Each structure stands twice: as C-alpha cells, then as structure tokens.
Amino acid sequence: MDCIFCKIIDGDIPSTKVYEDENVFAFNDINPQAPVHCLVVPKKHIVSVDETSECDMEYIAAIFRAIPKIASALGLKNGYRVITNVGEDGCQSVKHMHFHILGGKKLPESMG
Ligand code: DGP
Question: Does the beta carbon of 4 sit less than 6 angstroms from any atom of ligand 1?
C-alpha cells in the first residue's frame, strides 16, 4: 500500500517520533503550524474518521488515551488543539487518519 504514514510507522520514511505504543504512533509534522505540531496516527491503516468500523474503535480509544500523555510529554501545560481533517472539504491531504496536536502558543480562535 502506497501510504506515507504507513511507511513512517514501519520506519521506511524517517520521522521524529514523539510517542509509540501497541496501537498508536506519533511524530512531528513536517510542516509545523505551531511551535508544537505533531500527528497521532493509528498503526492500522484507517482512511479517516468517516471510514471507521466497529473493529477500529480500539484504535480510536488508544489514540485518545495517548493524546493527553503526548501533550504532557511535550510540555503543553496550558492547553492545546486537536484536529482531524476529513475528505476533500476538510482538506485531508494524507489518506491515513491522523490527529494533529497543535500548541505551544495561544492559538487563533478561528478554525475555518
Ligand atoms: P492533513 O492536511 O490533515 O492531511 O495533514 C497532513 C499532514 O501531514 C500535514 O500537516 C503535513 C504532514 N506530512 C505530510 N507528509 C509528511 C511526512 O513525510 N513526514 C511528516 N513528518 N509529516 C508529513
């Protein structure tokens, strides 16, 4: 499968890893939009929030268990933003579900 994030998870494309467990991998975004900007992805290739099935729920749960741990490890003591883009109108460029963690400054109120 020709998926950039699967290749990052497998170590075939280098990344700066910030967290890993059995179900989840997280790494710094190549094009940061904030002082802290990392991506949290399931190790299973799931296309987006719009294309999940019941058996993917353990990955979703694992991602949301991991996010506060990652935020804490990255020093985001005063809050942060979690975003997932879905499909064309959501401007999802990589078709492997991922959750952006953005922080390290006061973020703009506008979200689109
Ligand atoms: P989205 O637009 O929500 O699909 O975000 C995709 C993000 O993935 C975007 O912020 C840039 C990031 N990205 C794309 N290719 C790579 C890569 O090869 N390495 C890393 N670290 N990030 C990537």
Answer: yes
